[in-house]
Task: inverse folding
């Protein structure tokens, strides 16, 4: 940085006249942006508003913040921050918006319960559900829990804590009621390798898994009305649990699934 | 606003590790711009989250944004722009050594900032009344039916405006401190670094609102 001993004259002083002009310009631009937003330009409303906002921001930066009279180092510092904002946004958008996911088709657990139409009242175990659960298990769970559900799958050796042995009654972290196990499948077990399957398996598939793994154990606990309420089933007398709506399971979309988790938590 | 020139700003001595008072000033200013760079990046994720979710739930965001009072937003925009103007005036008054004008303009800036927070408070309390609150605290069933993602919009709305409001509140504290120092006659043509740095910060707060206003209130 070059600076002579006495270069006060280099310090720019914003004149009252220019300051006032900037103020009026900013107020006029505010008025324009409000008026423009009242008129329906369709999808152009957004770029118009952002264009005007950028113009206002530029006036503030150049004159009020004195960027116009500042040195290049400070200019580079400020505009590099905008560059990184653009990188952040464009990379995120290029990922999220190129995944062809129907965002509206998915929802939180409340709607998921009614998932498919294959099974009515999927929270009540039936031989059909258990058989379906066994199929799902052989695809999604065997790697860790083993083909017999003994917690001795191929990947189990590398895991600590060890995967659950479904044949034992003791040690179920979240409890052994069907609704407890359903929530484990929904949320995973923090601090272990047990992942959430909310985004990869439909609610129906998860209920069938619940009944299958419980059928392996020595006892089969049941859930009462309060337990069912915890997973969103308000009216157990109805086939859909009194929830209505539907869900299309979407598979293999980890980012969409993460966002969905976020959204359902936000609710 | 013509006032006497203060002489006692002469008593500021630059720190020994600087070559000159000017060196000190330029270093401070560069440090301030670096701070503002990190402020931009600090707000950035919220803007990105807003833009991404807006893209995904355009309809819901649109409906939710209609539940914000754009008149209040517009008034706040004007208030904040006016405060930026008085802040700029305070800096140039300090540069010219006009003590009273510096103090006056700083006082106006503080009053505008308080006005901004007051309007924000009225907006927030209305949202508490009608239940358009973030995430699981959202209780406005009517809007929820039309726009299932409205709670997400209001999560982002509150996160962004609260973070901005916090900046305004901190700004008021700094402005009061600077105003008291200006009253004591600490600033003048040879030393006005704190006024200028506060100005840069304050204009940045204005900048953020310049984008928040159309994004949240107007085009949703």
Result:
């Amino acid at each position: 940085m070059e600076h002579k001993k006495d270069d006060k004259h280099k310090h720019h002083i914003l004149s009252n006249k220019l300051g006032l002009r900037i103020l009026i310009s900013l107020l006029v631009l505010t008025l324009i942006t409000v008026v423009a937003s009242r008129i329906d330009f369709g999808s152009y409303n957004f770029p118009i508003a952002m264009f005007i906002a950028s113009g206002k921001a530029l006036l503030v930066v150049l004159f009020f913040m004195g960027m116009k009279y500042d040195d290049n180092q400070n200019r580079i510092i400020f505009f590099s921050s905008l560059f990184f904002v653009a990188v952040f946004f464009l990379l995120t958008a290029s990922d999220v918006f190129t995944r062809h996911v129907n965002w509206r088709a998915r929802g939180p657990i409340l709607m998921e319960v009614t998932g498919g139409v294959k099974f009515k009242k999927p929270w009540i175990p039936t031989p059909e559900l258990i058989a379906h659960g066994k199929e799902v298990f052989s695809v999604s769970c065997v790697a860790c829990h083993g083909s017999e559900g003994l917690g001795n799958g191929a990947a189990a050796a590398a895991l600590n804590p060890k995967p659950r042995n479904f044949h034992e009654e003791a040690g179920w972290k979240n409890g052994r009621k069907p609704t407890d196990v359903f929530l484990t499948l929904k949320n995973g077990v923090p601090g272990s390798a047990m992942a959430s399957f909310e985004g990869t398996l439909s609610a129906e598939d998860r209920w069938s898994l619940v009944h299958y793994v419980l059928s392996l154990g020595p006892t089969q606990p049941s859930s009462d009305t309060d337990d069912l309420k915890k997973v969103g089933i308000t009216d157990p007398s109805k086939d859909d649990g009194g929830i209505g709506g539907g869900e299309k399971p979407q598979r293999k979309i980890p980012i969409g699934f993460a966002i969905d988790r976020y959204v359902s938590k936000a609710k | 606003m013509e006032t006497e020139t203060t002489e006692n700003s002469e008593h500021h001595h630059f720190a020994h590790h600087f070559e000159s008072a000017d060196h000190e000033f330029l270093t401070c200013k560069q440090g301030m711009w670096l701070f503002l760079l990190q402020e931009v990046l600090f707000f950035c994720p919220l803007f990105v989250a807003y833009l991404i979710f807006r893209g995904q739930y355009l309809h819901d965001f649109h409906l939710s944004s209609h539940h914000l009072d754009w008149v209040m937003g517009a008034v706040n925009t004007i208030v904040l722009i006016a405060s930026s103007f008085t802040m700029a005036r305070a800096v140039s008054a300090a540069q010219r050594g006009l003590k009273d004008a510096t103090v006056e303009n700083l006082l106006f800036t503080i009053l505008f900032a308080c006005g901004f927070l007051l309007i924000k408070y009225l907006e927030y309390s209305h949202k508490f009344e009608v239940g358009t609150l973030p995430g699981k605290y959202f209780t406005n069933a009517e809007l929820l039916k039309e726009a299932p993602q409205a709670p997400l919009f209001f999560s982002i709305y509150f996160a962004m405006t609260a973070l901005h409001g916090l900046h305004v509140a901190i700004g008021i504290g700094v402005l009061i401190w600077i105003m008291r120092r200006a009253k004591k006659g600490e600033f003048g043509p040879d030393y006005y670094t704190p006024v200028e740095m506060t100005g840069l910060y304050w204009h940045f707060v204005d900048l953020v609102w310049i984008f928040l206003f159309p994004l949240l209130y107007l085009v949703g």
About this structure: Chain B touches chain A through 64 residues (CB under 8 Å). Residues 21-218 of chain B form a domain with the Four Helix Bundle (Hemerythrin (Met), subunit A) fold (CATH 1.20.120.80).
